[in-house]
Amino acid sequence: MWMKKLAQHFEKMRSIYPSDRLIVLFDIDGTILDMRHMVLSVLHSYDQTHSSSHFNDLKISDIDVHENHVESLLSRMKIPAGKAKSILEWVTANLWTPENLLEAHLPFSGVMEVMRWLQIQADTYVGLNTGRPEYMRAETLNSLNHLGKEYKVRFTDELLHMSSNEWEASMEQPKVEGVRYYRDLGYRVVAFIDNEPDNLLAVSEAEGTNITTIEGLDPAGKHPVQQAWIEHQVPQCGYCQSGMIMQAAAFLAENPDPTDDEIVDNMTGNICRCATYFRIVDAVRRAAEIKAAGKTGVGEVSHG
What we know:
The protein is of the alpha/beta class. It folds into 3 domains: 2-33 and 107-207, Rossmann fold, CATH 3.40.50; 36-104; 215-293, [2Fe-2S]-binding domain (DNA polymerase, domain 1). Helix content is 51%, strand content 8%. The protein has 14 helices and 4 strands. It has helices spanning 2-16, 36-50, 70-76, 81-94, 98-104, 111-119, 137-148, 172-184, 197-207, 214-217, 224-231, 241-254, 260-267, 277-293, and strands at residues 22-26, 124-133, 160-163, 188-193. It has a 4-stranded parallel sheet with strand order 3-2-1-4, sandwiched between helices. The two termini are 20 Å apart.
C-alpha cells in the first residue's frame, strides 16, 4: 500500500535529516482528488439544466476516463455526435466552476488522513504541486480547505505551487519548477506523489534519479510480471493495470519469494474496479516463479 510505504519512507528520511524542514509534495487532480466525482457532477448538472436524461443511470463506477477526455465516455454511451458536442461544451464551461469545485471535490480514501499525519509531525509540511493554472489559486485553496476541514488538514498559499501555463500546455515542466520552488524556500523535498508517470519522469530526470514507468518496464512484454499477467488473464477493463503491474514489479524486486499474505498486504491500496483480486494474487505468485526460474533477465524496477 503506497500510503504505508510513504510513511516508512518519511520516517527513514527523518532519521537521516533530523533537523531539516521536510516536505512531501502532492499533485491535486487524480492524486488527492478522485476526479470521477467532478465528471459525474457536471454531467448530472447538464441533465438538470437541460431537462434531459442522458446520465440518469450513470454511476461513479462507470467513469473510467480522464476529465479531459469525456468524449470517449459519450461515444461509448452512443450519444449522437451533435448532442455530444453540446455536452462537451457544457463540460468544458462548467467542470472547473467554483460551484462544482466545492460540490464535487472528494478525496481518494485515506489520502487526507495521510496528510493529517504528516502535518502533525515535527518540522514536516505538505506542499501542493499542481498543473492547475495560476488564475485558479483562490478557488483551489478555498475548495481544498473546505474539504480538509473535516480532517483537520490546512493548506496555505505559500505551500501551493501552480502552473504559469494554461490547461492544455505541457504539465511536466511546471512540476519540475514546483519541486525547485520548494527547495528554494528551504524545504527538503523527500517525496512527490503524482498520478501522471510523465510528471514523475520529468522530475526524476531533472534531479538525476531514475524512475521506471509502465512503458519502460519491458517494451517486448517479457518482464516476469507482464508474462504472468497475460498467463492469468488479469486485465478486464484495464483501468488499474499500470499501477497494479508497477506495484507488483517493485514489490518482487524487493521480495522475490513472497507469501500470499505478503502479496495481499503489498497490493492493498491498488483498487481494481473489476475485482480481479484473486487473479492478481495468482499472477504475482506466478511472476515470482518465473523470475526464480530465470526465464527472463529484463526490466527490474529501479529504486535509485
